[in-house]
Amino acid sequence: MAPTVEKTVRTSAGLASELRLSVMRLRRRLAAERHPDNDLSLTAMAVLGSLHRNGDLTIGELATLEMVQPPSMTRTVTCLEESGYVVRRAHETDGRQVVVSLTATGRSTLAADRRSRDAWLARRLAELTPSERAVLREAAPILERLSTT
């Protein structure tokens, strides 16, 4: 017998609620597992991560990737630049834009922070059964797709 529309909606809503709560708790826990020497905001770390993944980017491209307004991104990049995590240079073909690049300090800070968080998560994953890890392996790309659409 096929489920009723009401039951499907309730089930989808229930799954949405469970996922929201679990993902938010995991995010908070991962934020707490940051490298102890890192005092950058999560927003600043996200910018470093975007530059690491995508290479040099304009302020507008960073703002789009991080889903913030360009003036907010300009403030974040300015703080990162003043602390030596990124550098700015003129765009090669558009004099109105600047391109942002990671510095060695930015790369090493990002790497240390990721190692710290990954180590915590790897320890937690090791506590799971092989079948639970297999489920998460299959779910990871789905969660990524949900987060980018």
Brief digest:
The protein has 149 residues and is mostly helical.
Q: What does this 3D model show about the protein?
A:
70% of the residues lie in helices and 8% in strands. The two termini are 33 Å apart. A 3-stranded antiparallel sheet has the order 1-3-2. It has one domain (33-148): Winged helix-like DNA-binding domain superfamily/Winged helix DNA-binding domain (Arc Repressor Mutant, subunit A). The protein is mainly alpha-helical. It contains 6 helices and 3 strands; from the N terminus they run H-H-E-H-H-E-E-H-H.
Tell me the series of helices and strands, N- to C-terminal. HHEHHEEHH
Major β-sheet profile: 3 strands, antiparallel
- The total count of helices amounts to 6
Strand order of the largest sheet: 1-3-2
What is the 3D shape?
globular
Number of strands: 3
Overall CATH class? Mainly Alpha
List the helices and strands and how they pair.
Layout: H1 5-32, H2 42-54, E1 57-58, H3 59-66, H4 70-82, E2 86-90, E3 98-102, H5 104-126, H6 130-148
Antiparallel strand pairs: 1-3, 2-3
Helix pairs in contact: 3-4
What attributes does this structure have?
149 residues; Arc Repressor Mutant, subunit A; three-stranded antiparallel β-sheet; 6 helices; 8% strand
